[in-house]
Specification:
The structure is a homodimer of 277-residue chains. Chain A has 277 residues and is an alpha+beta fold. Helix content of chain A is 20%, strand content 27%. Chain A has helices spanning 27-39, 72-83, 142-150, 200-212, 220-227; strands at 3-10, 46-47, 56-65, 88-96, 108-116, 130-131, 154-157, 172-183, 186-193, 242-249, 253-256. In chain A, strands 1, 2, 3, 4, 5, 6, 7, 8, 9, 10 and 11 form an 11-stranded mixed β-sheet that branches.
């Protein structure tokens, strides 16, 4: 059976998350239902990284094996037709070798987190960013947040930024990149790693926001990290600002959205070594 | 009673349009209800330009008189609190002189129309742009569309681009600017005029799209305009791509969103002469 690699966009608000669950609609179940309707086969769709309820994807990478060998554009269009009206779209479909595995071949994942700062609640971008109204101190201090982010780079025990329900065997992870960039109306935070702990990106963002508000000094983030205590870090940032933005594969460079300059090592198809979740 | 000028953002999909109507929720009614709840007064809110059902605003300009004289930030925050959960936000509130009238003082209106081109249906931008999948000829030809647009500039009888239900006394309008710009993933079309006929922007966009697809030559748009026959022009572009983007007032320059370089005459607070609708 031919294997295809998909690049997917979805609106996380409509789903309990990527992974098939009993308590609601998942992106995986929507895709598998579309693949069944199109191909007649009970097809499994596997993603590079599972996303939580409410978390979006600009470019999730997945693969599936189909019992029919159509041109990839036909597969893309057929899946999109059967996905309606679920807010999931197949942006790209490519034939890949049988040993390509969206999850186990993946060498790195990247996320984008969007913060919009203005006094008025979000309307046209509602559900697409974290709304942070400017406080008495004004807008978030992007430079202080960027400085704080440097303390998180590298291989660490990320217990302070790990959800209590995280099922990973180890709290050790290697954070390859964490950038903070001021953009029109707000901030964009990008995170690159081989893999992340549960809620790690959102917990890092929630902590960086406290730095941006002047409630934490940048250097305190190093102390919070060293404490290995979830209670020391900031609150979990809401899911609506988070986007799965791309994945790294051997010899394939980055697959996914344009998310800025990747950290060293990523451009040549390598990331630092961590075990995959 | 103090008068305030508001800049508003709204999601047109939730409304029958700007103007209060019997058959559904209007932006005007949502604002007047919020103003009543806040101030205790039966307040009328008037806008620079009425928008149709489904048409968004990045920056609609409106005014209202309030029976209480609070600081403008207080007015903005109170209106936003009472507007919840309607998808309308007051971005800005400023005290203005009693002779400021959002509609009758307005010297020009500008609209933005967004087209997104890709094979996959829109997900994260669903309802925020016109989805135009690339045809056999590929992407829309922005240069041909820009050339076609020049034939519409100036003072003309726009009957070919006027909705049959248009209630304006005259089909004569002066189009000050009509730009077509290729952007990441699609096109942005901007239109500037003292006033527009009903559906004029969407009918011009629907016709320019045919030029972009090679179904009309740029010069044919001049022939369509001269024909004064609605049946000769293209179909009406859907409302979800259209945004009210700003308004021009005497001595105030442009009030509203950043919508590119305005046409000649606009920068110094003038637009060409047309009667207001």
């Amino acid at each position: 059976m031919p294997r295809f690699r998909l690049i997917l966009e979805y609106d996380g608000a409509a789903f309990v998350g990527w992974q098939r669950q009993d308590n609601g609609d998942s992106v995986q179940a929507a895709l598998e239902a579309a693949a069944l309707a199109y191909s007649g086969g009970a097809v499994q769709v596997l993603a590079s990284g599972r996303t939580d309820s409410g978390v979006h994807a600009l470019a999730q990478v997945a693969h599936l094996d189909l019992p029919r060998d159509d041109p990839p554009q036909t597969v893309r269009n057929a899946l999109n037709a059967h996905l309606k009206p679920a807010p999931v779209a197949v942006l790209d479909c490519q034939p890949v070798a049988d040993d390509f595995h969206a999850r186990f071949s993946c060498l790195g994942r990247c996320y984008l987190y969007r913060i919009l700062e203005r006094p008025a609640p979000l309307v046209l971008a509602r559900g697409r960013a974290w709304w942070v109204p400017p406080g008495r101190g004004g807008r978030l201090d992007a430079e202080a947040m960027a400085e704080a982010a440097t303390h998180l780079l590298g291989r660490h025990d990320f217990t302070s930024f790990r959800a209590s329900q995280c099922q990973a065997d180890s709290p050790l992870r290697t954070l390859d990149g964490l950038s903070v960039r001021a953009v029109e109306g707000g901030l964009e935070i990008r995170a690159w790693a081989r893999s992340f702990l549960h809620h790690q990106v959102r917990n890092m963002v929630g902590t960086l926001k406290l730095v941006g508000q002047g409630k934490l000094a940048p250097g305190e983030v190093a102390i919070i990290l060293a404490a290995r205590d979830r209670a020391r870090a900031g609150p979990t940032a809401p899911p609506e600002g988070l986007y799965f933005a791309g994945a790294l594969y051997p010899d394939a460079a980055l697959v996914g959205a344009d998310f800025g300059a990747p950290p060293p090592g990523w451009a040549d198809g390598k990331s630092r070594a961590d075990s995959s979740r």
